[in-house]
Structures are given as structure tokens and as C-alpha cells.
Design a protein that fits this description.
The structure is a single chain. The chain has one domain. The termini are far apart. By secondary structure, the protein is mostly helical.
Length: about 180
């Protein structure tokens, strides 16, 4: 019988559930939130004039760091997808995250499409928080299965836990960058 719970370990969710439902759920919520916030801001008049930061260097540094960490988030999910595929473990809907990384980056770097969407930062912040939480749940479930499982495979559990933990750290930096922008 298919479902979110593992047949081998009754108290944990399957990696298929984590990668096809749990982690992509953050992206679906983000897309819905972007649409809702966009229409709410359009309803209120929605345009604001973007003011340059007082210290251009500081603003430029934040932008460069945000771009670097956004690239890292993209790269880490590519790494996870490739390693899962090489180990024949299935990738679920993890590649769907790439689309929201692009949308979040476009909104950030265009300052809410040049002021037409001033509340974009709320949606981006929620995205990074949800990805931290969902990947935290994923790690917790993987650790219940055992840190040393899948040894001798192309993607041992210890490597996957490390990769997902690094992703969580990258998402945290992106969240901080979003809140400071």
C-alpha cells in the first residue's frame, strides 16, 4: 500500500513523500503567496519608488552575497538531484525548486519589478523559512532511518543529510539577506 509512511520503518515518512510532497509544498505555497500579494499590492495602488540605499557599497555587497547564495541554493539542489538520480533513489519534484529560485531572484534583483510589487520580500522570506522547515523535517526523518544507512551506495545517507543541512544554511542566509534588503 502506497503512502507517506515507510513500510520498513513505520514511524518515518518515505523519501519519496519528502521529495515529492513535503519540500515542493514550500514552492507551491510561495507561488500562491506571490500571486495573492501581487494582487493585493496592485489593488492598493502598488507602485512605490525604490530608494537607493544610503551606502551604495553596503547595498552592492548585500546584492552580491544574495546572488552568490542564490547560486549556491540552486547548485546544492542540482547536486542533490544528480546524486539521487545516480543512486536510483528518485528525485520527486525537487527540480521544481529551481523555478522558484529564479522567480525569487528576479523579484529581489528587480526590487519587486521596479516598484510594482513592493511586498515581494514577504513572499521571498516565507519561501526561505518554509524551505528551512521542510528540509529540517526531511533531515529529522532521514536521521530516524539511520545516519549510516545506504553505505556503499552512490549516495549514502550521511552525504544526503550533509547536503540538505548545507541547503538549510544557505536558505537561512538568503532569509537574512531578504530581511536586510
Amino acid at each position: 500500500m502506497a503512502g507517506p509512511k515507510s513500510h520498513l520503518y513505520g514511524n518515518i515518512t518515505t523519501s519519496c513523500f519528502n521529495d515529492a510532497i513535503l519540500v515542493p509544498l514550500a514552492t507551491w505555497i510561495y507561488l500562491l503567496l506571490v500571486v495573492v500579494l501581487y494582487f493585493l499590492s496592485a489593488r492598493r495602488g502598488g507602485k512605490y519608488v525604490y530608494e537607493e540605499p544610503r551606502k551604495r557599497r553596503c547595498g552592492l555587497c548585500r546584492t552580491i552575497f544574495y546572488a552568490l547564495f542564490l547560486f549556491c541554493a540552486f547548485g546544492m539542489t542540482v547536486l542533490e538531484v544528480v546524486r539521487l538520480e545516480l543512486a536510483n533513489l528518485g528525485i520527486g519534484l525537487l527540480p521544481f525548486c529551481w523555478a522558484v529560485f529564479i522567480i525569487a531572484g528576479l523579484l529581489y534583483f528587480s526590487h519587486g519589478l521596479s516598484g510594482r510589487f513592493p511586498t515581494y520580500w514577504i513572499a521571498n522570506s516565507v519561501l526561505w523559512m518554509l524551505l528551512i522547515v521542510m528540509n529540517g523535517v526531511k533531515i529529522a526523518e532521514e536521521l530516524k532511518e539511520g545516519f549510516n544507512t545506504r553505505k556503499g551506495t552512490k549516495y549514502p545517507m550521511s552525504d544526503e543529510v550533509t547536503d540538505v543541512a548545507v541547503q538549510m544554511g544557505v536558505y537561512l542566509v538568503l532569509l537574512i539577506g531578504e530581511l536586510l534588503h
